[in-house]
Amino acid sequence: MSFFDDLRRAIVKGFFLFLILIPLVVAFLTNPEFESSTARPTDRLKEASSQDLERHVRQLASISPARNFRNQQSLSRAGEYIKKVWSDQGYVVTSQRFEAGGATYENLIVTVGPEDAPSRIVVGAHYDVHEEQPGADDNASGVAGLLELTRLMKPRTPSDKRIDFVAYTTEEPPFFGTNQMGSAVHAESLLPEKAKIKLMISLEMIGYFSDQPNSQNFPVPSLKYLYPNVGNFIAVIGNPKSWMVTRQVKTLMRSRASIPVESLNAPGRFPGVGLSDHVNYWHRGIPAVMITDTAMFRNDNYHKETDTPDTLDFGRMAEVVNGVLGVLTEL
Question: CA torsion sign, 250 to 141 to 219 to 171?
Answer without folding.
Answer: negative
